[in-house]
Amino acid sequence: MFSQEVLALAPQVIQWRRRMHQHPELSFQEFSTTDFLKEELQKIPGLVLETPTKTGVVAVLKGTHPGRTIALRADIDALPIQEETELPFASDTRGVMHACGHDGHAAMLLAAAVLLAKKREQLWGEVRFLFQHAEELPPGGAAEMARAGVMAGVDEAYSLHLSSTFPTGTFGVRAGALTSATDRFDIRIIGKGGHSAFPETCVDPIVIAAQVITALQTVVSRRIRAVEPAVVSVCMLSAGQAYNIIPGEVDITGSTRTFDRDTREKLPAVLEQLARGICEANGGACECKFTKGYASVINDKELTRNSRQIIADTFGDGAVLEIDPLMPGEDFSSLLDHCPGFFVELGARNEETGCTVPHHNSKYRMDEDALPYGTEYLYQLVLNRLSRDAD
């Protein structure tokens, strides 16, 4: 199951992960994290380091033989959450926490770099280790890195994500659309404010907003095919400054999640038509703004098949879980604009150790026993894809 090289490095991987967990940084602010990664990467013989963006780093390992170029990507940013785990290595930065496993992703990729650098003479091709910033904040670090040229000449791209949904030691695999496209909408309801004692002299935007919010819940059930997964969620509502004043405006903000490209393109018009019609029927008006987020991660069919086999050969058939599409978004999709790729969910849920809290939660705890699985997978993946006999 685990190679001796991976087992020997496992304690160091945990140490790296805990160091990054204790010192988290928000998206586009990962300066200290990048410095730490560069310091560790510089210790590895054979790597050439590049800093194509202000935060984030790329390490290039060239095999001794010509071949394909593979990109392995790990995200490194944290979330604006106050940690409440009471772990001895909990975040020392108030209001910032690694609550999505990115510290584990970076530690496993760092380990893969250590292991593969020792196999350089056996590699037919090139590996690019992408320690990517700002996955959590659109427009995201992946697109910025791609614009900086890190994907030039890359033939295949791979990434993984620790998951509190699947048991430790398993891998969630899916060909085709894996994650949803995640977009944002902002709707401003414009009415006419006034004294709460005289509502007849006003155009109450709060009453209008309530109708709009209720109507938005019918979009998925009545405007999208029943067999097609989609989500429309209102997540922010802002209005008023006093208990006895009807405000003039209400701001509604939310997100849409889709997999079908046509549905993604038509949703803004559907939402605006619905909001505008309700506003006008009540004597008000609205302003609508739609912001595209991340596109769906589409796993290449052949690379999925090959990766599934590598996981089964390494950990057994039981380690492979065929999973449904996932609603959370992922900016790894920006890298897949440049080459085919494969993204896998790495199980990190452990009932016995209490590692069951979902991601983006102040009490999120990652099962560190998952780290050797991810390290071994990345190690075997590259050895397979850059072997002399690789197809």
Can I get a quick summary?
This protein has 391 residues and is of the alpha/beta class. 31% of the residues lie in helices and 27% in strands. It has 9 helices and 16 strands.
What would you say this structure looks like, in words?
- The protein folds into 2 domains: 4-178 and 296-385, Aminopeptidase (3-Layer(aba) Sandwich); 181-294, Alpha-Beta Plaits (2-Layer Sandwich), CATH 3.30.70.
- Helix 1 (4-22) packs across helix 9 and helix 5 packs antiparallel against helix 7.
- The strands form 4 sheets. An 8-stranded mixed beta sheet has the order 1-2-4-3-5-16-6-15, with helices on both faces. It has a 4-stranded antiparallel beta sheet with strand order 10-12-8-13.
- The protein contains 9 helices and 16 strands.
- Strand 3, helix 3 and strand 4 form a beta-alpha-beta unit.
- The protein has helices spanning 4-22, 31-41, 102-117, 141-147, 205-216, 218-223, 261-281, 301-315, 371-385, and strands at 47-50, 57-62, 65-75, 124-132, 156-167, 171-173, 176-177, 181-190, 194-195, 230-239, 245-246, 249-258, 285-294, 298-299, 320-322, 341-349.
- The chain is elongated.
- The protein has 391 residues and is α/β, with parallel strands linked by helices.
